[in-house]
Design a protein that fits this description.
Blueprint: H1 3-22, E1 35-39, H2 46-62, E2 66-70, H3 77-84, E3 92-97, H4 98-108, H5 116-119, E4 120-129, E5 131-135, H6 144-153, E6 159-162, H7 168-180, E7 185-188, H8 192-201, E8 206-210, H9 211-219, E9 224-228, E10 255-262, H10 267-282, H11 284-292, E11 296-297, H12 302-323
Parallel strand pairs: 1-2, 1-3, 6-7, 6-8
Antiparallel strand pairs: 3-10, 4-10, 4-11, 5-8, 5-9
Helix pairs in contact: 1-2, 2-10, 4-12
Length: 328
């Protein structure tokens, strides 16, 4: 079992028991079939951990089983294509890191096999995930100034990992390089967990990694957290300064998670899903467990989810254009 999934196992089991106990008081079941929440990335990463936590809270309120199904591949596009073509009845949903999908679509266009705006309806914005510039301790780097100096002294030699070309980790690193005036070598992987294994092992030197993937490794001394990408510090890593505090004013970015459904899903079904997801995300127990992952739990109305998603798509298209990132 992957580390993040293991940390949530006991909490998830308890939540399932609790939701089962309250199901008798729920509305009519959403469907006679299980609801499947698709994660288009490997098990054990941040998207997977978040999806499993949310799924554990929804079974009782929706009156049906909610399962998580991992369908990784093609930078998350395989899972997204699957949901886009699924029956539009609310039983197949996508746990979407919209930041990453928007970047991929900006790079690849129609070859992704789906359109974020046309093939999906955003149901709820459920989380904001900071990225942490993390380095292998062998570099003996503690601050962003030291890391920047190292990269400038060895153009193209310092390596940085990502969960794939065009992933959020990749794009944030490109943003950093442009702002800091440095050049580094990109080493893409097929998932954040695989990249993290090699970062800890010293096969790569650095990574802008999501908080759930670094918290335990930083606590164990296996990684050094240099700076965090969001405008504010994160409660799970309170001593890690922001990029802005560390010499890059105005630098602020997070990976945003949105639960999405096929575009033709009836409005009443979307609203039912939104209501139950909002209730789950506002539950103090959920907020605490999500916070343990270094993620800020959020929720939104259906219209707000649509507007935020559209804004993110436009924002990251512009980032890709100005960074000149190309699909490999």
């Amino acid at each position: 079992m992957k580390p993040i999934a293991r940390r949530l196992l006991v909490a998830t089991a308890a939540a399932l028991v609790a939701s089962a106990g309250t199901s008798a008081f729920a509305q009519a079941p959403l469907s006679s079939r299980p609801v499947t929440l698709i994660v288009a990335f490997p098990a054990g990463g941040a998207v997977d951990a978040m999806a499993r936590l949310i799924a554990s809270k929804l079974g009782g309120p929706l009156g049906t089983t909610v399962i998580v199904d991992n369908k990784p591949g093609f930078s998350g596009n395989i899972g997204a294509q699957y949901v886009a073509k699924a029956p539009a009845d609310g039983t197949t949903l996508l746990m979407a890191p919209v930041t990453s999908y928007a970047v991929t679509e900006a790079m690849m266009g129609k070859t992704t096999g789906f359109s974020l705006e046309n093939d999906f309806v955003p149901v709820n914005v459920v989380g904001e995930v900071p990225l942490v510039l993390s380095v292998n301790p062998a570099l003996k780097i503690r601050t962003l100034a030291e890391f920047t100096a190292l990269a400038k002294s060895k153009p193209g030699a310092v390596t940085f990992a990502s969960s794939g070309n065009g992933s959020t980790e990749h794009v944030v690193a490109e943003m950093f390089m442009k702002r800091a005036g440095v050049s580094m070598l990109h080493v893409p992987y097929k998932g954040g967990s695989q990249a993290m294994v090699d970062l800890v092992g010293g096969q790569v030197q650095s990574m802008f990694a999501t908080t759930p993937n670094v918290i335990q490794n930083v606590a164990a001394g296996k990684l050094t957290a240099v700076a965090i990408s969001t405008p504010q510090r994160n409660a799970s890593l309170p001593n890690v300064p922001t990029m802005a505090e560390s010499g890059l004013p105005g630098f602020g970015v997070a990976s945003v998670y949105v639960i999405m459904a096929p575009a033709a899903t009836p409005k009443d079904v979307v609203q039912r899903l939104n209501t139950e997801i909002t209730r789950a995300m506002q539950d103090p127990d959920t907020k605490q467990k999500v916070g343990m992952l270094g993620i800020t739990a959020t929720s939104s109305g259906v219209n707000d989810a649509r507007d935020q998603t559209r804004a993110l798509i436009g924002q990251w298209k512009e980032v890709v254009r100005t960074s000149d990132i190309k699909a490999e």
